[in-house]
Design goal:
InterPro entries: TPR-like_helical_dom_sf, TPR_rpt, Ycf3. By secondary structure, the chain is mainly alpha-helical. It is built from 24 helices and 2 strands.
């Protein structure tokens, strides 16, 4: 069998053919699928590979290439099924594991992707693409040291891999190795002097290293190449403010907010500059906005991009029964604040309920029920990311709190993290909250 490279596909296509005379027509369909894939006709390729599979269902290459066609059509679930079959027929094919890992990562199943990438590396330890892909998944899982090792291995095998160099630079920043990141960003710019992100990345590292003049120079280049990048204006404004150029910084903060009005840090920076320039009224307005925006978490927009829509989420969440049980009133009266919050929320005063719940948590930091109820109220108000943070705290305090896993699961699913959401729902069922199985049946298959 031989392998051919397909520029338009996600990965290279395996063009292995059965030489048996009885399978000649299946081989014809297979070749037609290869040809169509090379021209970007993935729908036609899928049909051709399907015919080849019908005529010869034991040919791993047909399943593999049909999987690639589906992946290029963004049908990653269907692609994974084909890769599964290809691996079942040929468990030693590194490319099949790599491709399946890529499709899993496209679904945010980065833990599953890691297993596939690691198996691909066992079978073919000299492929830079696999190390890079595993590094990306590790980054998404915040396994930054592992990601750093993978990106470094990619570069060892392929020294001019600009994507890996840039990714390693960003990873070093996350590990606070700002000095080390400079060399990676500079290498990217040697290869591509018009890579705006590399200028921006290097500028941020220089800013962290207190090289404000150098940071401004790099951010100037980033903005020249990418004039709609709000973050570059923000960081340049910050660097200018550090050099006491408050007028210049003010202009950059204004531009940041024009491009991204949810950046509460930019309001703070602009308020600081206005104060330094004598505009105290404007400064106070900006500080107020920075405080309110930060508290309401408006810098993180919520998108309901899973099969569980906002309406479905509200319905599923509201089916959860409250667990407010009477307890002895402690000296700090946290229980009273908690129960008053439940009553206020039932009266429709969610804002006052949140104040009481925060007070209950302040008085009793291990109050898991208070965190859970706070998360429920925030979710009802549409602050799903804030809700998840509170539910995380509840689970940390009570790892067997089944309803929390259930609610966190449906929220994650609604926000597009189907894999993470379904895992939480499974955990809720395992802990005895049986309604989760109905949701799993409806939304996790």
């Amino acid at each position: 069998m031989t392998r051919r490279f397909l520029p338009l596909a996600l990965l290279c296509i395996w063009a292995g053919l059965s030489t048996a005379t009885a399978q000649q027509s299946a081989a014809d369909f297979f070749e037609n699928g290869i040809t169509r894939s090379k021209t970007g006709d993935f729908t036609g390729a899928l049909q051709a590979f399907s015919m080849a599979i019908t005529m010869n269902p034991e040919n791993a290459a047909s399943y593999y290439n049909r999987g690639l066609a589906k992946a290029n059509l963004k049908d990653h679930r269907g692609a994974i099924l084909d890769y599964d079959r290809a691996i079942e027929l040929n468990a030693k094919d590194a490319l099949a594991y790599l491709s399946r890992g890529v499709s899993k990562s496209k679904q945010d199943d980065h833990r599953g992707a890691l297993l596939d990438f690691s198996r691909a590396i066992e079978l073919n330890p000299d492929d830079p693409q696999t190390y890079y892909s595993r590094g990306v998944s590790r980054s998404r899982l915040e396994q930054h040291r592992g990601a750093l090792a993978d990106f470094s291995k990619t570069i060892e095998l392929e020294p001019n891999n600009a994507l890996a160099l840039y990714a390693r630079g960003i990873t070093k920043q996350k590990l606070e190795d700002y000095a080390g990141s400079l060399a990676d960003f500079s290498k990217v710019l040697e290869m591509n002097p018009r890579r705006a992100q590399a200028f921006a990345g290097r500028g941020v590292s220089k800013l962290e290293l207190k090289d404000y003049t150098g940071a401004i120079a790099d951010l100037n280049s980033a903005i020249e190449l990418g004039p709609e990048d709000a973050e570059s204006y923000y960081y340049r404004g910050f660097a200018k403010a550090k050099l006491d150029d408050y007028k210049g910084a003010l202009a950059d903060y204004n531009r940041t907010l024009t491009l991204n009005g949810d950046n509460f840090r930019a309001y703070y920076g602009r308020g600081f500059c206005r104060s330094k320039l004598g505009d105290q009224k404007g400064a106070i307005q900006d500080f107020n906005t920075a405080i309110e925006a930060n508290n309401s978490n408006t810098d993180a927009k919520v998108y309901y991009n899973g099969k569980i829509t906002r309406a479905i989420l509200d319905n599923l969440r509201n089916l959860v029964q409250e667990r407010n049980k009477i307890n002895d009133l402690s000296d700090e009266r946290a229980e009273a604040y908690y129960s008053r919050a439940v009553s206020k929320n039932k009266q429709g005063d969610a804002k006052a309920a949140i104040v009481d719940l925060n007070k209950a948590i302040e008085l009793s930091p291990t109050y898991a029920e208070a965190y859970f109820t706070l998360g429920m109220i925030k979710s009802a108000q549409g602050d799903q990311k804030g809700a998840v943070m509170d539910l995380n705290s509840a689970i940390k305090l009570n790892p067997r709190y089944a309803e929390v896993y259930y609610v966190r699961g449906i929220i994650k699913h609604a926000l597009g993290d189907e894999n993470g959401g379904c895992l939480d729902l499974s955990k809720a069922g395992e802990l005895g909250y049986t309604p989760s199985y109905k949701v799993i049946s409806d939304y996790c298959n």
